[in-house]
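Narrative progress, year one. The postdoctoral researcher (J.K.) led the effort to move from monomer predictions toward full complexes, under supervision of the PI. The following entry was the first complex the group processed end to end, covering 1035 residues in total.
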Amino acid sequence: MLRINNLHKSFGKVVAVSDINLQVRRGETVVLMGPSGCGKSTTIRTINRLIEPDRGQVLFNGQDITAMRDKDLLKVRKRIGFVFQHFNLISRLSALENVMLGLVMGDMPREVAREKAMSALTKVGLEPCAGQRPDEMSGGQQQRVGIARALAFEPELMLWDEPTASLDPILVREVLVVMEELAKYRASTMVVVTHELPFALHVADRIILMDKGRIVEEGLPSKVFATPASSVGLRYKELIEYQMNTSARTLAGKRIA
Amino acid sequence: MRFVRNMLRDSFYRDIVILAIISIVIGSALASAVSMGANAYFSKTLSSLVGDYGEFDLVIQVREETKEDAEQQIQRILEDVFPGAKMKEGPTVTGKTNIFVALPDEFKTKPIYEDLGKTFGSIPGGAGVGFMTEPRLTIRGVPEGAKNLLMERIAAMEGVRFAFRDGGSIGVILTSLDNSVAVNKQIEALLKQYQVIEISFPVGSEPSNPVRLGEAIASDMQNQLKLEVARNVSVDGQNDDMTSLVSTMMELRRFLAAYASQVTIAPVDGVRLLKGDAVVFQGAAPNAPAAGEAPAKENVLVQVTDIQPDGSAIGTITQGDASQLTNLQGSKLENNLVGQPTGAASYRNPRQELGSALNETSKLVGQVPEFAQDAQNVAKIASGALDDYSTGVSAIEQTLDGVRSAGATIQAATNGLAAIDTRALQSQINSSSKAMGGVIGTLQVLKLLQADTNATIDSLTSTQGNLNNINNTLGALSNVTATAHQARAAIDGIVANGQTTLDTLKSFDAEGARANLNDINGRLAQVQQINTPMVASQLQYMAASAPSLKDEDINHSVQLLDKFIAGQVIPGERIQILTDGNVTTDAAAPIVHREAGHNNVSLYSTALGVIEPNPRGEVYRILSEVKAVLAGITAIVLTVAFLLLDHTAIMSAIRRKNLTGKVKVKGWRAVPAKILAVFTAPERRYGMLMGSVLLTAMFVLAGGGIPYLPWIGVPMLGALLGFVAAGYCEKISPIAAEEVMAGEALGLSFDEIMREVVVPAARPGLLQKLNTRKVKFR
């Protein structure tokens, strides 16, 4: 469904993404992980050209997004949902209007759009908050509105750019539940950038580890985290072990240190 | 094509064009309204202040506190002198009330206008009369002496009703406003025909009488440069009474100053006098001035006018008289109090010297008749001597002839003697005498022998004695001959010298001398007829009157004369010559130098006069400029407002959209590339274009105009404003990048993002107002 060939992007002298090659199959949930600044967000944003790549190809259902005219790009973007780290809601619009915006601007009749938007909000459990503005909602609710906005299009591909990074751990749960639900039903293909190890372990079909703009390791979570082939993978493995031990000892009522 | 396509479809580009058009319309309307409002207000204010165009002819200024009395007085004058005239009280400005007067047409004449100062001169609190008659032109800067000429020429022009003196200017009343342009051109042409050559004298080189010098220069210029006009216009006309009076006053001043006493003060050691210092002397006071006291009236005060290189001070007496300077020790006046002794004074009193000289002269004049009589007597004697002269010359001639004749006689007498060889005779006689002496000796011997030889011996001795006598006589004869030669030579010398003397005497024009003596005699007779007693008495009168002027009187008079002369616009350091327009100062310079006696002058050529715009027209012109400036400033303000409120949001969006544009060159080429990138950045180009379009369109439509800003500068100024606004667009109208990115991620086009995301969140303005028609989520 999605194929990335030799994608390269630099900001000045800083190389953010260096000749990445990646393939995502339909229905697959791919999780991109790696230390901060390794190029995960840049990679995911170049997919729908929110960031223009310097070179390389992004093929979506065989169409080269990087070579598209603006008009075609707009159409493709409507088929790709995007959830942002900072929610990126239109502050002057209500939750419902935020979800409706893309639909209405896509020439969908207003009432149909309203129904679809309400349906999407219902999916994320925010039907009661439809009339509230972003500044009247919690971070978790805002992010769920953002998810509903992406889902309302019924996109073929969902791109998640660290959707829980701006949330406190309690609110993270709200979002992860929704994401797990979506992944569980394989409603769409997903490429997720996250630091949430449990989520990755739980729902990822494939883990891709990045470091310094390059993909350093990829594979099943059990393989990547159990027998890591890269230093990044090793650090994640150690982290998992540490978390497991800490959780076990804590739950056993023992002192950790 | 793309632009046209964008215009045809419902795009944000079309929104921008509509915004620009509406901005221009609103801005132009606002700018016009502001400028027209201000113009209307000022025009109305002006009309209420000075009436409508041509409504009034005169404005009489009076002091506010006397305006009631002044108005009554003006009303009376108008009724008596200008029946039918109207009067209106105008505004009071800085304590002076303006009273406007409208004159009936028949009173609008040159004589009346030039006499208005006198006509309204008795107004209580009156401060002057100004002219408001329209249509009118004013020519200023015309030298006094050229005004009559210029007024005559202007009055003869078609379209001119009359020209008159308006204070220092020339007022020209036109027959109709339609003639204004034509008359203006004619006057300009007339002014160009002439010029005024100004001759400036630096300090120290001022002419003693600039009036006379000016006239001399003008006369020389006219004669030597063959000019149509060359006239001294430093003062009002060549034959004007005032010129003569001023000239006389200047001569009088010079005369008085020449007879003011000059005091020289030699300061004591440690005292230094400066120009302007005053020194007090005892004068007629009973005691010397005491230090620390104010000078008495009887003291003599000397003001220092010059300091000599040796430190001595030259001064003039400002109080008292030089004759009172008996005690020559003076003290410096400090803060109007007598200070310490300053030094000793010496003085020269020209009046005293003049008096003495006149007295002596009068005495001399008394003796003139006697001198004349004596001279006549001498002349008679000389005449007698001349009579004797001819006789004397004849006698000398006769004497000389006698001497010459005696010389001839001596010549004849000595010629025979000169033929005798006395020396040979003397030699033979000596030989004979010696031989005879031998014979006698022989006979003496014989006598011893022969007694009868005595007779022979006696005879021979006698003969020898005779021979000796003859010899002696021959010697004497030889001497006589030599003496006769000498006498002859002496007589020849006497005759030659006598002849020379005689020739000299004969060359003397005795008759001419006699005629001269007769003339002298006649003149001496006339001298004897002079009323010498009267002359002597007049001289004595002058001698008596000259010293009667005190020094203080002279100096006060000189100061008064200075004030008078200064008030007659005759600056001593400047002469103005009205002349043809084609004469150069270089051509005039030699004449000026010669007449002035030195080259230390500067010559300038100035226009004869300048046409001054009508004050009211000038005010309206200024008002129209103010209107344009207000329109321009309003347009600038509105352009800035539109740019900041509406267009900075667009610029921010453009800037965000084009963030990927980077300078790709490296090294030194990066610097100009970066500078170029700054000016060619899309948001800056948009800002410059929009600022330029908005400001230029508003300027044109509202009739804006900023002093010193040419029309080409208007779009440039607009572009500059847009450039600056673009530089600060993200600070003025920051856009929510996350919201924009969300819109992009949702597949919204640029138009949709602008309408739904950017503009609704931007600063409230016209764009936002217009956008409400387009936005789908209000």
